[in-house]
From TrEMBL:
Matching PROSITE patterns: HTH_ARAC_FAMILY_2
Residues covered by the HTH araC/xylS-type domain: 214-312
Name by which UniProt lists this protein: DJ-1/PfpI family protein
Keywords: Transcription, Transcription regulation
Listed CDD domains: GATase1_AraC_1 (cd03137)
Organism placement in taxonomy: Bacteria, Bacillati, Actinomycetota, Actinomycetes, Micrococcales
Length: 317
C-alpha cells in the first residue's frame, strides 16, 4: 500500500440526494482507523442546492479532483432531463485520464455516462432509471438487475443501500476484508452482498423473515469451523429448507452454501491479513479442512493463492 492515505472526493451536484452524498463521506471518513481522507466538493465552492429540501455548503470546487485518487458521484434528482455542467464532465474525464477511479451511486451514473467513459462497458443505476439511462446513453451496456458493477476504474451502483455495498467492495479491494468488515460493523451493515444480486424482487405475499435470516447468518459465522448444511441453517431459522434456500438467494444473491463458502474464505482472508497462522491451521479454523481445499476455493473465488494474498495484505495493511 502507499505511504499516504487514499484520497476520496465526493461530488455534490445540484439536486444531490442526501443519502448518496453521506454514504461515501461516512464510509471513507477521515479518522485514525481509516486509511482514507475525504473532501466533499461541488462544481464550485459555496452553496449547492440539493434534493429533499437540503442544501450543501462545500469548501472545495472541481480542483479537488486533482487531489483525489477516487471521485464519487452521488445520485441527483432528474438526471434524465439534461447532462451535468460541461465543466463537470470535462473535470471527470481529466481525473480519469490522470488515473483517478470514478464511482457513481444511483443516478450519478448519468453524470459518469455523460463523459463517454461507460461506452462499451457494463453499468447500472437505480432500477427506476435504468431504461432512461439506456435511452440517453445507448452505447452503455445497462444491467438493470444488479447492485453494482465494477469495471476496474469506473464503477456504478444502484440505489442508496447498494452504494454501501459498492463502498465496502472498494475498501475490500484497497485494503482487504479485515478493514471492510471493521467498517461494516461500524455501519451495522451486511459485511458482503453479491454485486450480482437482483435490485428488486417483487413478492406477491411479503414474508417478514429478514431479521430471522440475519440472525441465522450471524449464527453461521460463529460456527464456520463446524460442518454446516442447508438443513442446519433452515432449522436455526425455523423454516423449511425450501423456503430458506429461496429466501436466502433473494436476501443475499447467493445460495446458502455459496454464502457459507465465501464466508469461510473471507474469514481465511482476515486471518491471513491479521495473524501468522499457517494455511493448514487457517483451513481447519474456517471449516475448509485442508490447506489444499483452502487453496482451491481461494483461487476459484479470488483468483490468487493464500500466500500471494498474505504478501499483498501484510499484517497492519
Amino acid at each position: 500500500m502507499t505511504g499516504r492515505n487514499h484520497r476520496v472526493a465526493v461530488l455534490v451536484l445540484e439536486g444531490a440526494k442526501p443519502l448518496d452524498v453521506g454514504i461515501p463521506a461516512q464510509i471513507f471518513t477521515t479518522r485514525q482507523s481509516m486509511p482514507y481522507e475525504v473532501r466533499v466538493c461541488g462544481p464550485a465552492p459555496g452553496l449547492v442546492t440539493g434534493g429533499d429540501g437540503l442544501s450543501y455548503h462545500v469548501a472545495d470546487g472541481l480542483e479537488a479532483f486533482d487531489w483525489a485518487d477516487t471521485v464519487f458521484i452521488p445520485g441527483y434528482r432528474h438526471p434524465d432531463r439534461e447532462d451535468p455542467p460541461a465543466e463537470v464532465v470535462a473535470a471527470l474525464r481529466a481525473a480519469h485520464e490522470r488515473g483517478a477511479r470514478l464511482a457513481a451511486i444511483s443516478t450519478g451514473a448519468f453524470a459518469l455516462a455523460a463523459t463517454g467513459l461507460l461506452d462499451g462497458k457494463r453499468a447500472t443505476t437505480h432500477w427506476h432509471y435504468t431504461k432512461a439511462l439506456q435511452a440517453r446513453h445507448p452505447l452503455v451496456d445497462v444491467d438493470e438487475n444488479v447492485l453494482f458493477v465494477d469495471e476496474g476504474n469506473v464503477l456504478t451502483s444502484a440505489g442508496a443501500a447498494s452504494g454501501i455495498d459498492l463502498c465496502l467492495h472498494l475498501v475490500r479491494r484497497d485494503h482487504g476484508v479485515g478493514l471492510s468488515n471493521h467498517v461494516a460493523r461500524r455501519l451495522v451493515a451486511a459485511p458482503y452482498r453479491s454485486g450480482g444480486q437482483a435490485q428488486y424482487v417483487p413478492r406477491s405475499v411479503p414474508e417478514e423473515l429478514g431479521p430471522v435470516f440475519a440472525a441465522t447468518r450471524e449464527w453461521a459465522l460463529r460456527h464456520l469451523a463446524e460442518p454446516l448444511t442447508v438443513g442446519d441453517l433452515a432449522r436455526h431459522a425455523n423454516v423449511s429448507t425450501r423456503t430458506f434456500s429461496r429466501r436466502f438467494v433473494e436476501d443475499t444473491g447467493y445460495t446458502p452454501m455459496q454464502w457459507v463458502l465465501r464466508a469461510r474464505v473471507d474469514v481465511a482472508r482476515e486471518l491471513l491479513e491479521r495473524s501468522e497462522l499457517g494455511v493448514e491451521q487457517i483451513a481447519a479454523e474456517v471449516g475448509l479442512g485442508t490447506g489444499a481445499n483452502l487453496r482451491l476455493h481461494f483461487h476459484r473465488i479470488l483468483g490468487t493463492s493464500p500466500s500471494e494474498y498474505r504478501h499483498t495484505f501484510v499484517q497492519g495493511g
